[in-house]
What does this fold into?
Amino acid sequence: MASDKGMRVQVAVRLRPALNPNEQRANRCVSGIDNKSLEIWNWRNTDQSLRFEFDAFYGADSQQKDIFKKSVRPLLAHPLEGQNVSVFAYGPTGAGKTFTMLGTQKNPGIIPRSLFTLFREIQRRERNATSSEWKYAVSFSYLEIYQEKVYDLLEIKSHDLPIREDQNHNIFIPNLTSKTISSVQEFQALFEPASKNRTTAATKLNSRSSRSHSVLLVKVEKSRETERELKTQVGKLYLIDLAGSENNKKTGNQGIRLKESGAINMSLFQLGKVVDALNQKLPRIPYRDSKLTRLLQDSLGGHAHACMLTNIAPEEEFYMDTYTTLNFAAKSRNVVNKPFVREISETKKPAKKRSLSSHDDKVTTKK
Ligand code: ADP
Ligand code: MG
It folds into this structure.
């Protein structure tokens, strides 16, 4: 009974504030309209701007808690009911993916907030429970997909880990480290050094962190023992900070960088194709075409719930990345029952030529 709702990937866009306060007004090429839509320059015709609509739009002054409350918290009931959820941050390097997922001490992001909410809900349920009710156990794993290879981030092993599927179509990684946790504090104590390790490695390896997908997997195992049987359910929550989506034509990548970009583009492209195929209800979903989508096979589509948090930056230097990012995100958005609105609207400055038919950026919803 896979409902349409379960298959739909929610798409939210977050615009980060300008980092240089002096540039706050100048050099902006994108701005919000309301809590679902935004406007961006049309580089093909400066008398016009392009308008995109998503499930949610979070403007530059939005807070971490707003994004969490509206786009993520509603999904967190599912892993407690044996269902899978995936939340991923997409967008170019520097647009705010890590800030959104991880955040800072003062401004915690989706990851700490999700763990906090899960544990609070489990405690609430256990407090109200009688002895015959469900018991919960939480564990987590942390891995990185770099150049189509899977690396454990909790215990550094230098080899690629294989992804497997069991007879019930659950996806798993046989030798991946998994740590049992019973509180947010326990989680932080194990997760923080691991994510710091990654940042250190990143500086050594020329910002590998922006060139790999970092995947946090939180597993909620639920069990209930009666005289006759032991029942268990497992729900998975994936919280993913994707590799930067910048295109390598602009960055002039060569050698290893070009190879990295190839792998990144390939897997992000495959992710886009999977989302597209799911939402168009195609008979074949191309999960197997990349490590990332293979890993997410049981957590994206079907009964699983998913949200793509798309991060964009306001500065002009990001314009082409922003433009391609919105097109990528809008394509996924479009896969829903009603086509997404990407209409041409006029800019506020007095435009002499107002003929809409003259625009050459033909609006299409397909690639
Ligand atoms: P990405 O992970 O996409 O490469 P980051 O999350 O590292 O981008 O963000 C780039 C910079 O912008 C960081 O210094 C980060 O702290 C800052 N930043 C990102 N989003 C916000 C935000 N919403 N508010 C304030 N600062 C932000
Ligand atoms: Mg980052």
